[in-house]
């Protein structure tokens, strides 16, 4: 799978603002600062397509990116960022939930977890939520470059156990920095959504 074209389409908060091109959507979900915006830049090979920051809470809207004219990648706000008010956290939660429940074109979720850490209760709740709504889920462990080689197997086991993944459910560890396993991420993210021979 080759990404030939990528462009920002729009930012939205409410359903009437979502794009209506009818393209299948893949949404990136995860804690604040886990690397949701970075994975969109890595996949599209564009450094500044999605806004990345060291300050958690950078993405505050639902951002849509058109890929090869045939699919949308969706960058969502992160959850679990403690330094914002409860009211604001609830507002973000609602933006994420509305999108998950209301987008008619959403085909797949990519749950991002930090490859170094045990998933949080929020991550587990998110995954349960996707399962309940019978959405297709792929788990990606981010920041592989920061993980010691010796810890990879051990951490994958902890992540699988904490999230309760079945053996056939995939976890891919990757790095946006070194691009290790990036092609595998791209192929899996778009499997069944964009033609493979592109
Ligand atoms: N070393 C390393 N740093 C990464 C990687 N992916 C993301 N980062 C860094 O992690 C920080 C957060 O990345 P973002 O992509 O903005 O995270 P986000 O999940 O979009 O964050 P919010 O929008 O706040 O929810 C930035 O400083 C990135 O450069 C990676 O694979 N390796
Ligand atoms: Mg972001």
TrEMBL record:
Similarity annotation: Belongs to the TRAFAC class TrmE-Era-EngA-EngB-Septin-like GTPase superfamily. EngB GTPase family.
What protein name is recorded for this chain? Probable GTP-binding protein EngB
Gene3D superfamilies given in the database record: P-loop containing nucleotide triphosphate hydrolases
Give the classification, highest ranks.
Bacteria, Bacillati, Bacillota, Clostridia, Eubacteriales
* InterPro entries membership: G_ENGB_dom (IPR030393), GTP-bd (IPR006073), GTP-bd_ribosome_bio_YsxC (IPR019987), P-loop_NTPase (IPR027417)
Q: In its UniProt record, which GO terms are filed under biological process?
A: division septum assembly
Q: Is Metal-binding tagged as a keyword?
A: yes
Tell me the PANTHER family matching this sequence.
ENGB-TYPE G DOMAIN-CONTAINING PROTEIN, MSS1/TRME-RELATED GTP-BINDING PROTEIN
Question: GO molecular function terms here?
Answer: GTP binding; metal ion binding
Q: Its biological function?
A: Necessary for normal cell division and for the maintenance of normal septation.
Which positions fall inside the EngB-type G domain?
Answer: 22-195
Which Pfam families did the record assign? Answer: MMR_HSR1
Q: Which UniProt keywords apply?
A: Cell cycle, Cell division, GTP-binding, Magnesium, Metal-binding, Nucleotide-binding, Septation
Q: Which NCBIfam families would you find in this protein's record?
A: GTPase_YsxC
- Which chain positions lie within coiled-coil regions? none
The protein's required cofactor(s) are namely:
Mg(2+)
**Got a GO cellular component term for this one?**
cytosol
Recorded superkingdom: Bacteria
